[in-house]
Amino acid sequence: MTTIVSVRRGDQVVVGGDGQVSLGNTVMKGSARKVNVLAKHQVITGFAGSTADAITLRDLFEQQLDKHQGNIITSVIQLAREWRSDRVLRRLEALMLVANKDKTFLISGSGDIIEPEDGVIAIGSGGNYALAAARALVDNTDLSARDIVEKSLHIAAGICVFTNDNLTIEQLAAAG
């Protein structure tokens, strides 16, 4: 279980996540890295769910980015289509957030592709806590996107037993 949150504010997009890996009700590791930058394409990915499944999906997404010259929209659609229709991939249990300088998407194995209307989205066991905190901070403060991601993850860690305070936070500057 984990918590991943993404915030767009001003010319920044930030994705952050905690490091907790749980097996049932046991914390197995506290320092996993679930947020990564695909530097070649300037895309940040974050995942919640099975680690092996998420790494498989991240690799498939990167292959789609390579195939479609970094076009995030086409790559997201093709990954969701493949994930939904392939008998083996359909069993993968994970959610992914992907963001580049212009767009942010949540991708699921049920074929969902969601682009947040307000620039804030979250996944994972503590996702709803982080989402609520991030939305409140966006609406009521002048904090940077990075500060909002950090604070919302700390709030989620204080509520969700499957989220910890060992954070990985990545950011990109928006186009402009």
Structure explained in plain terms:
- A double ring-shaped homohexamer of HslV is capped on each side by a ring-shaped HslU homohexamer. The assembly of the HslU/HslV complex is dependent on binding of ATP.
- The protein has helices spanning 51-67, 72-85, 127-140, 145-159, and strands at 3-9, 12-17, 21-23, 26-29, 35-38, 43-49, 94-99, 104-108, 113-114, 120-124, 168-173.
- With 176 residues, the chain is of the alpha+beta class.
- The chain has a single domain (3-173), classed as Aminohydrolase, N-terminal nucleophile (Ntn) domain (Glutamine Phosphoribosylpyrophosphate, subunit 1, domain 1).
- The relative contact order is 0.26.
Outline:
The protein has helices at about 50-65, 70-85, 125-140, 145-160; strands at about 5-10, 10-15, 20-25, 25-30, 35-40, 45-50, 95-100, 105-110, 115, 120-125, 170-175. With about 180 residues, it is α+β, with helices and mostly antiparallel strands. It has a single domain, classed as Aminohydrolase, N-terminal nucleophile (Ntn) domain (Glutamine Phosphoribosylpyrophosphate, subunit 1, domain 1), CATH 3.60.20.
Salient structural properties:
176 residues, alpha+beta, Glutamine Phosphoribosylpyrophosphate, subunit 1, domain 1, five-stranded antiparallel sheet, globular, 34% helix, 11 strands, four-stranded antiparallel sheet
